[in-house]
Request: fold
Amino acid sequence: MMQPSGAEQSTPMRELPTRAISPGHVLVANWLAYATFYFPRLAFAASKLGLLADPSLSLTRSFLGVADASFLAVYAAGQFVSGTLAERIGPRRLVVLGLFSAGSAAGALALAPEPWFLLAIIVLQGAAQSTGWVAVCSDVARSTPVERRGTVFGLLSTSYAFGALAAPVFLGWIAYSLIGHWRAAPAASALLAVAVAALYGWWLAARQQLPVQPGQRRDSAGANPRQRVVRNPTVWMLSLADFLLKPVIYATVFWTPVLVRDALPQLTPTAATALAGLLGLAGLVGPVVAGTLSDRFFAARRLLPATLALFGCAVTLSLFPLAASTGHWWLVAIDLLALGVTLYAAESLVVGVAAAEAGGHDAAVTVGIVNGVGSVGGILGGLVPGLLTGTPLFLALAATTLVAWLLLLPLARRERVQSPASSLLR
Reply:
């Protein structure tokens, strides 16, 4: 079973102000907020074609690759800080701060006069983005009873699948069809992020939980939240599993159109990109299915369905080269759909509801550590497909997924059924 922190075994947490409003409102607000994070996050990606063609900057592909790697490194490091920051100032204030910061960085990107300035802005964007997932997970976990948490976190996890799908399309249309310049993409994302930050702050932040004051103890042991979390072995097993799973996430997000075209060279670039989009569409379904099943059929056990999803993900990765060897696009499409469902189902459970419940009172710190360690592995996901192709690449990704499955299997076997009375965050 996922072990609660020592704080939870001593003194129950005081009633939270989030009880005063509907948990459904909390979910909707945080879903909207995190989906919006993806617009300034992917503004750089949507701008790349225009950046490469802009004679005033004279950028190269290698420079853009360095910028992406810098973003991912800062994003990973920021997760560890954001967890503690959410505990100090409250998750809703952190969401507002993060969205305003992301919007400001995107606005500055639209004005970038020199390559060095652009790189500095990308680094700032990585820091701003690192606040989002930690904060929304912490807020939703606090307002949701344990017996519904799987379903609710599944719905919350569709926010990043939606953002990853919608942001490039919308920003690309704004930049290249409506305005006709790449700078319109980050400018539009900045306006959207600031507007949603203001809406979020008006809607929910007024009911912000008061942060723990200096000198106050949240439990009888008086331990620092980070100290409690780092002593929890379940947190590190989840972190290692996400470290192994994140490369699959980032490899598919960054490289799927190229991988599909490699597998089916007869397809046009447009057709390959459209076929690759099936992975993202399936990613909208996987978290909801996994979360609902964990609540209704697994009695709020999170790691058992997560291990099933991980095993399914390893199988579908292994079968992709076989599907590609037939030359049939529809077999590749089926494999991509299965991969999207299993991959995003496993990710949503591991870095979402399972991490939050493993942390208990310290959900923000725990999610920050799990997602932070995972994001370090995600850096490899952007690099490996440039070094391996075809069957070796997919077998390597399947192997890392299988190791993640083996890591979580003993925890899943020991995990006990949860009841409303045993809510870790109540």
